[in-house]
């Protein structure tokens, strides 16, 4: 068994990760952002409420969860353990995000009017609201801070080969959301682990029932989208869970 504390997160290379996964946008990722954008629009659109605080736990070198939250948030915490990933996120937030991410933003803007409405100011808006912050999801449970919308993409099952750590990660993610807050969480199904650069990283093999069991104590009204796409050898598709933090 490989625990989260044993993985070489200090060596995680964001440039390699982005080049492999996001430089040429995949149809499955475009589908994901459209679904997440609709989920957040259905919840926040037309409501007489101010912007909320958002969080992306284990943000890594993936900027599209933050873009999905952008119109709805006064601040977005990008929680990340790896120092090189933090540097990458700071650069994207401070200098304006790379053109590679425009393809994902375009999917949101073309599909949902509220995203299109902030299209011209998307770079400046991210500079204003994004807050990359060092943090370990497995240690987040004691935090008194709460967020009004959350994202967790390919994190809980991709940080260790421990089932206990997987369930703890899911529990901590939902536990820091305000009651009723919408969330989006994505999982690699039956993952055997993965490589970034010259390093190997662990994973815990999950299927939809395992994900649903982990979410159930603190989530409600969850919709599951099983995505039949193979990114690499050693997994069997993806799962997107869209739901809300339990209110009672």
UniProtKB/TrEMBL annotation:
Question: Would you say which domain of life the source belongs to?
Answer: Bacteria
Name the InterPro entries for this protein: NNMT_TEMT_trans, SAM-dependent_MTases_sf
A biological process term (GO) from this entry: methylation
- This protein's UniProt keywords: Methyltransferase, S-adenosyl-L-methionine, Transferase
Q: Which residues form a coiled coil?
A: none
Which terms in the Gene Ontology molecular function aspect does this entry carry?
methyltransferase activity
Annotated Gene3D superfamilies: Vaccinia Virus protein VP39
How is this protein named in the record? SCO2525 family SAM-dependent methyltransferase
- Give the originating organism: Streptomyces fragilis
